[in-house]
Amino acid sequence: MTTLTEARPPVTEEKAPRRVALRPGAWVVWGAVVFFLLILVGIVGAVVVNSFGKKWFGGWLPKGWTTHWYGATWKEFDLGSVLTVTLEVAIAVVVVSVIVGVPAAYALARRNFPGKRVLMVAFLLPILIPPITYGVPLATVLYKFHLAGKLSGVILANLVPAVPFVILVMTPFIEQIDPKIEAAARMCGAKTWVIFTRILGPLLIPGMLAAAILVLVRTVGMFELTFLTAGADSQTLVVALYYSVSAAGIRAQQEIDAMAVIYTLSMLVLLVVALRFVNPTQLVTQIKERD
Amino acid sequence: MSQTKISELRLDHVTREFGGVRALDGLDLTITGGEFVALLGPSGCGKSTALNCLAGLLPLTGGAISLDDRRIDGLPPEQRGFGMVFQNYALFPHMSVRGNIGFGLRMAKVPKADARRRVEDALNLVQLTDHADKFPGQLSGGQQQRVAIARAIVMEPPLVLMDEPLSNLDAKLRLEMRTEIKRIHQTLGLTTVYVTHDQEEALSLADRLVLLREGRVQQIGSPEHVYTEPANRFVAGFMGYRNELELPVKQVNEKTVVLDGLGDGGLTGVRRDDLGGRAVAAIRPEDFTVGTGPNATEVAVEVVEYQGREQAIQARTDDGVELHLRAGTRLAPGDRVTVSVPPERVLVFAAESPAAPEEVA
Amino acid sequence: MSQTKISELRLDHVTREFGGVRALDGLDLTITGGEFVALLGPSGCGKSTALNCLAGLLPLTGGAISLDDRRIDGLPPEQRGFGMVFQNYALFPHMSVRGNIGFGLRMAKVPKADARRRVEDALNLVQLTDHADKFPGQLSGGQQQRVAIARAIVMEPPLVLMDEPLSNLDAKLRLEMRTEIKRIHQTLGLTTVYVTHDQEEALSLADRLVLLREGRVQQIGSPEHVYTEPANRFVAGFMGYRNELELPVKQVNEKTVVLDGLGDGGLTGVRRDDLGGRAVAAIRPEDFTVGTGPNATEVAVEVVEYQGREQAIQARTDDGVELHLRAGTRLAPGDRVTVSVPPERVLVFAAESPAAPEEVA
Amino acid sequence: SPNSGGGAKDVTPDKVPDNPKNPVTLNIIDVAGNLQLTQGMIDEFVKAHSKVIKKVTYTKATAPELPGKIKAQQSAGQVQIGLVLTGTDGLSAGIDQNLWVKTDDYSSRIGNPNYQAPAAKMQELAQGHGMELVYSPAGPLIEYNPQKVPNPPTTTQELLAWAKAHPKKFQYARPANSGPGRTFLMGLPYLLGDSNPKDPKTGWTKTWSYLQDLGKYVDYYPSKTSETMTNLANGSADMIATMTGWDINPRALGQVPPGVKVTYLKGMHWVTDAQYAVIPRGVSADVVSADIQLIKWMLTPQQQAKAYDTGYFYPGPAVNGVTVSMAPQKSQQVIQQFGRPEYDRWISQFPMETSLPAEQQTAAFDQWDRTVGGGKVHK
Amino acid sequence: MASSAVVRPRIALRHRLAERGVDRTLLLLLPAVVFVVALFIYPFVYGLQLSFQPQPGSEAVSRYGSGPFADYRNFFGDAYLRDTIWTTLKIGLPAALFNVLASVPIAYRMRGRFRGKRTVTTILVVPITLGTVLTAEGLLAFMGPTGWLNRILLDIGIVDHPVRLTHNYWGVVFSLVITGFPFAFLLTLSYLTGIDPTLERAAATLGAGWWQRFRTITLPLLAPGLAITFCLSFVLAFSVFPSAIMVGEPARQTRVISIAAFHAAFEQYDYSMASAIAMIMGAVELIVIGLVLGWRARLYRGATGGKG
Ligand SMILES: Nc1ncnc2c1ncn2[C@@H]1O[C@H](COP(=O)(O)OP(=O)(O)OP(=O)(O)O)[C@@H](O)[C@H]1O
Ligand SMILES: Nc1ncnc2c1ncn2[C@@H]1O[C@H](COP(=O)(O)OP(=O)(O)OP(=O)(O)O)[C@@H](O)[C@H]1O
Ligand SMILES: [Mg+2]
Ligand SMILES: [Mg+2]
């Protein structure tokens, strides 16, 4: 056993110098992040403070506080049901657009076929062309088939830009995944559907999450198409919000702010819920980074 | 997915091109059920391509594949029901080892309890029980490879395709895994197509060897056949006839031939080709013996490599011909020794016979 | 990046944990400049981990690495200037073969013309000139591996770390590449740390072998030393002493020992440990000879594997002890033969000596 | 074509029953903020006439998008909106595109509302395709902070001089997005004595050059009236354009300090404003019937009194004979506290002009955008 | 053998098609294509043909007659309209570029593992929920002349008059950055984490410093994703509308093309002109995106990890 260890001085207990000091680049980046966040706090803070303020005629803070504005808007727009509708629409659009969009993105990412360019343009157009142009005829079609004026119409109309959006976002994600992994799944007898749900699904979660969040944001914020196809009981929050911002007439600034805060809060809840479930960093890499 | 056994798998002129270059060029092969076929050939000769075509992962550029007289080359991989061990493993990064191995069983809707048992068995087989809950990213190379093997084998598919499944394992483990693969192959009556670059593995496992070169078959035959009677100079070179001595032909007999330039009496060997003016004698290093005997010649030892009980020797004759041989006795560079080789161990090919390529395009 | 040669690289108690499990446990090793060190050990024993720690890709959990008495374990990999061939290649998928190989030279701002020449040389070396413009995704497994080798070697780094660089190459090519690696190592005076699972490779290439098991060093020594005098039962098993026969001790002498149960006169071997009641005799299959001689015993042949000139035999004594041996003569299952082994080729360890693990945790 | 009612089929008046066969669910869409004034009236109607309307749903939206929505429904033959409450913009867009039912056909059933004279003029803008519900003389008025502006301007020239002396302290919002902004714009031709106050393209030479001069001292044009109010409140502006409702209501809401004052410029003509109820073509006979009854109800003096609200559209009622004292208690209290007695005087004192028809308004906004708001680019 | 000889041509065709990328995988496109055709193509074609039918009595017709291109000629003939393209590009391009470029280094830093990473990520993504209205209101309140920001600046003494940060070009750009950055960041971060870190390690052993690793390994592998991120950010920024009005100077500096379209559609009720403007808008975007995607097509796109 003499070969096992060689004579050597005792190991020094001193810790190796680690790369702890941040490089200048890092300082700049983190500085920029902090700056951005400060601005953000200011912007959000100003609105939130005002929405609770009684009167704010300049000065650092309003004179007096109240929650009256929230009650007022809530009542005026019956926000309870509006929020429910918004939630339903948002979730339906996200789910359907992901289900329809991801397979299409898959085909676009994995295959080069004649006519692909034309198809890409066809998928790009709904994102590029403002709804002004196609909103009314689209709504006509939907009314004709008795789909508009209720939830289904709002959902369908919002899907028009959402599906291409998902396709566009997901294509690079799918390109990143090694096709060999799919091949392996097929060799295990997995059909296309299973490949999507069991193999690509989990690997694409960060991408789908990103796409879903963005679609969600766009849907909740999509005024024109929603308005054109909504019925009395299928209004979404943004319609109410736009009304309060740009409709004729007088309303308290605080009330608008209160509504904006409600809008943001409801989106925030959705976002945080989404982020709780999945982290926007890829599972795979996470595991790799553990070493 | 047919879990029934295969009775015949036929490849008819299977061809696959990549951008005009034929990676696989008219492969004709009939595999009978329960056979263990090994694909051999230099790096880049089309072995993986052949497996991928068989599995249905690459569309064919030409030819046909039929299983028991049913054309299957149009079938998607999941409907062929073959198992495959990928050269690069292709493990599911988001599933634990257990999840990876059990995936196929879940697909086949094997009852939970049964599946669990089979997964545990497979884990045991590849000696990964302790790592069952790790993810592929947390495994060593060899561990990953074993997961890939287990994942394919646990399905007990009628046809298993294995692409260098043991390349990252140490000698001891490789031996064990090899035995296991053989055992499974036999007990389950599977048909196996196996790619390896390890001759010993190929020889000991396979019923039949297929030698490929630049996408074209060079020889198909039993291990012994290929080993002792390589069809051409390329196969000989690839099968371990490391000494390829290009020498002028002195005398051609019916079965044997005498070449000039090695030893005093020339080099007598077995004739394998029609011969022109020059020929190539192919000799395995281990067929040389140190000491006088047939075809004796004196050489100077140049390089000695330690290889345990034996040494790998590079030596040179006085005529400047380089020889590779193995010696059990200790030699040192500079030593002069006489070596000999029995004529039946010397294969003589025409110099034009396809050579083991320096470069495989 | 220091292109100067290394004079001494010292690993002091280098330790690396993954979530509490020690993949590398107090590795002490001093590598002198120009040395060729091979790391050996079963799959998952920590070889890649050791290389990664050396390269600076994994932070240490404990211990220190010093290069010529300078602590380097805090340095980022790019400042260490070591070259590395990754076990999984890690080729840049968006660069051509040429681009991959030339990457390091571009980073080092080697003049264009010079770099081009060196890349071409490296391409030549790994026989990929014809594939120079392909992308990694278009290469076969072995071709990718050769790119990985070329990419590391073209830099001529003072220390090269190679993680199973030849595992996906065929025998012929492996032999050639092995020679090239050795040649480069010698002509450039590089220091090389080499992981392999191929014993022959390790024995013939390395100046020194390091045997690892579960992250701990088992033996460090010259190939011959490790081969003939394994430090313990584990090393013996790993180095090819495939027969590990646990038998009762009959008689203990100063240097030798006689065990009960094999042959009539017992099994005489070299004593390597202090012995208790039972001991383990480690014997290589190739050390058995068919025929009478010392330690003769009669066995029944059970399994015969074709391995070319030789056969791998699995046989059993009348006492039920299983033996692995090799035979040049043809045997068939059921044959009864007498086999013998010289006592100096039988190593006897205490039964408690660490065994080659069935399962490597 | 975009200008037709598409597939909308009109019900002819003879098909419209006096009472709906079945009580209807009425979808009311408000694009003018009109519900603030009229929701009380409607709710009371529904309570009192559950046989006519069993339920109302309210939708609020902005005017511009409304025609598109109605048109989509009409082209599909699926009109779901039963009644629209709109300002002049939505009204005339719909008239242009033939979206509204001709209410004149039902004048016998509605009866002749006893409109005040200026309100009656505003009703003419509806061209028989809608009924005016509320009315306000609006503006233009100047609102200022008396602490900063002890002597408010009394003429346009004084205003210009003041603005010059106090750059960036006078503000009015972009007319296209602001009631006071557009009232100021439409009132200026009268104040300046332009050749044709009804024709912004050719008849407003003085107005345009005045606004350009004034623009030199205007910091920027907010895109919402409320922002001018905020600026007045926090001191970044000292004088802004306003109108009656925008003077009273924000102070009542606490947006603007109660102490600010309002004045007018010499030569003032009121530019009146009104809001209407219109019925989209293509609704069922029952809905038309319910609409007619509802409109009639809303035009009774008792209901009209609710239009005083909190000074939001001051005064509000469109018909004669409605006094503050008839309004709900809360209205009375707000008007008492934040109303200005001088308004009644000014309303009777100055001539009333209807606001421009939508087309001319658009032209005026466009011109303003090009030459005043965007003028700085081209100079 | 006879039977297989008969079917051979059919199968060969299938293989040939597969070689060109036509196989059953393309069926996956079907739902999306059906969707786009059913719900988008008809309305879009309707809008397109509308843009070639100038509205009688409109300004375009009075100037350029009732030919199919009158609306387009009107748009390009009127500097006030034509300039909106330039104005929009001037806002949209820098904002989109900034969002994408700024998100790269931050996302790059966020890849590694550190405590609180999830929190920081979430906080950076949160502004996505603000919506244009809150952003606009917040900008006006916070950055307005009497807002907190100006108060702070005045109190510190950096400036002696309030700085105008709203109701001009910058106001709109700020609002686009605040809502657009998280968008770009979220995408970039997700694309970035799909890249196998081993590749960077390999580059490190070849002597590449962090910047070189980033430039030669990470960036090229990220580029296809960045291209898409840029396209989407650009589309968002190019179609900026509410904030151009609320925090911009809608008559002048921030008179973006969608204001012109809105004006035509909803103030003049000239839908054909609005369609024409929208088509022009789409065309401009398509040109920019076409350039970017054309560039993307030339990049490496494929697996960015794994063995080989
Ligand atoms: N996608 C591709 N595009 C272009 N050429 C390819 C592609 N895939 C493989 N090739 C080429 O086809 C040939 C055969 O490749 P294949 O992977 O079958 O080799 P192999 O026999 O498995 O080799 P190895 O033993 O090195 O794995 C190689 O020369 C390779 O470069
Ligand atoms: N990221 C990780 N997380 C947890 N465990 C890990 C991780 N990486 C490696 N390990 C474990 O550490 C041990 C050593 O791994 P290493 O890769 O060094 O093995 P190796 O000697 O290179 O094996 P092989 O010959 O199979 O490549 C293995 O048991 C492996 O499972
Ligand atoms: Mg291969
Ligand atoms: Mg390893």
From TrEMBL, chain A:
<comment type="similarity">
    <text>Belongs to the binding-protein-dependent transport system permease family.</text>
</comment>
<keyword id="KW-0997">Cell inner membrane</keyword>
<keyword id="KW-0813">Transport</keyword>
<feature type="transmembrane region" description="Helical">
    <location>
        <begin position="89"/>
        <end position="109"/>
    </location>
</feature>
<feature type="transmembrane region" description="Helical">
    <location>
        <begin position="27"/>
        <end position="52"/>
    </location>
</feature>
<keyword id="KW-1133">Transmembrane helix</keyword>
<feature type="transmembrane region" description="Helical">
    <location>
        <begin position="121"/>
        <end position="143"/>
    </location>
</feature>
<keyword id="KW-0812">Transmembrane</keyword>
<dbReference type="InterPro" id="IPR000515">
    <property type="entry name" value="MetI-like"/>
</dbReference>
<feature type="domain" description="ABC transmembrane type-1">
    <location>
        <begin position="83"/>
        <end position="274"/>
    </location>
</feature>
<keyword id="KW-0472">Membrane</keyword>
<feature type="transmembrane region" description="Helical">
    <location>
        <begin position="256"/>
        <end position="278"/>
    </location>
</feature>
<dbReference type="Pfam" id="PF00528">
    <property type="entry name" value="BPD_transp_1"/>
</dbReference>
<protein>
    <submittedName>
        <fullName>ABC transporter permease subunit</fullName>
    </submittedName>
</protein>
<feature type="transmembrane region" description="Helical">
    <location>
        <begin position="155"/>
        <end position="174"/>
    </location>
</feature>
UniProtKB/TrEMBL annotation, chains B, C:
<dbReference type="InterPro" id="IPR013611">
    <property type="entry name" value="Transp-assoc_OB_typ2"/>
</dbReference>
<keyword id="KW-0547">Nucleotide-binding</keyword>
<keyword id="KW-0067">ATP-binding</keyword>
<dbReference type="InterPro" id="IPR047641">
    <property type="entry name" value="ABC_transpr_MalK/UgpC-like"/>
</dbReference>
<dbReference type="InterPro" id="IPR017871">
    <property type="entry name" value="ABC_transporter-like_CS"/>
</dbReference>
<dbReference type="Pfam" id="PF08402">
    <property type="entry name" value="TOBE_2"/>
</dbReference>
<dbReference type="InterPro" id="IPR012340">
    <property type="entry name" value="NA-bd_OB-fold"/>
</dbReference>
<protein>
    <submittedName>
        <fullName>ABC transporter ATP-binding protein</fullName>
    </submittedName>
</protein>
<dbReference type="InterPro" id="IPR003439">
    <property type="entry name" value="ABC_transporter-like_ATP-bd"/>
</dbReference>
<dbReference type="InterPro" id="IPR003593">
    <property type="entry name" value="AAA+_ATPase"/>
</dbReference>
<keyword id="KW-0813">Transport</keyword>
<dbReference type="GO" id="GO:0016787">
    <property type="term" value="F:hydrolase activity"/>
</dbReference>
<dbReference type="InterPro" id="IPR027417">
    <property type="entry name" value="P-loop_NTPase"/>
</dbReference>
<feature type="domain" description="ABC transporter">
    <location>
        <begin position="9"/>
        <end position="239"/>
    </location>
</feature>
<keyword id="KW-0378">Hydrolase</keyword>
From TrEMBL, chain E:
<feature type="domain" description="ABC transmembrane type-1">
    <location>
        <begin position="85"/>
        <end position="292"/>
    </location>
</feature>
<comment type="similarity">
    <text>Belongs to the binding-protein-dependent transport system permease family. CysTW subfamily.</text>
</comment>
<keyword id="KW-0813">Transport</keyword>
<feature type="transmembrane region" description="Helical">
    <location>
        <begin position="221"/>
        <end position="241"/>
    </location>
</feature>
<dbReference type="InterPro" id="IPR035906">
    <property type="entry name" value="MetI-like_sf"/>
</dbReference>
<keyword id="KW-0812">Transmembrane</keyword>
<keyword id="KW-1133">Transmembrane helix</keyword>
<keyword id="KW-1003">Cell membrane</keyword>
<feature type="transmembrane region" description="Helical">
    <location>
        <begin position="169"/>
        <end position="192"/>
    </location>
</feature>
<feature type="transmembrane region" description="Helical">
    <location>
        <begin position="91"/>
        <end position="108"/>
    </location>
</feature>
<dbReference type="InterPro" id="IPR000515">
    <property type="entry name" value="MetI-like"/>
</dbReference>
<keyword id="KW-0472">Membrane</keyword>
<feature type="transmembrane region" description="Helical">
    <location>
        <begin position="120"/>
        <end position="143"/>
    </location>
</feature>
<dbReference type="Pfam" id="PF00528">
    <property type="entry name" value="BPD_transp_1"/>
</dbReference>
<protein>
    <submittedName>
        <fullName>Sugar ABC transporter permease</fullName>
    </submittedName>
</protein>
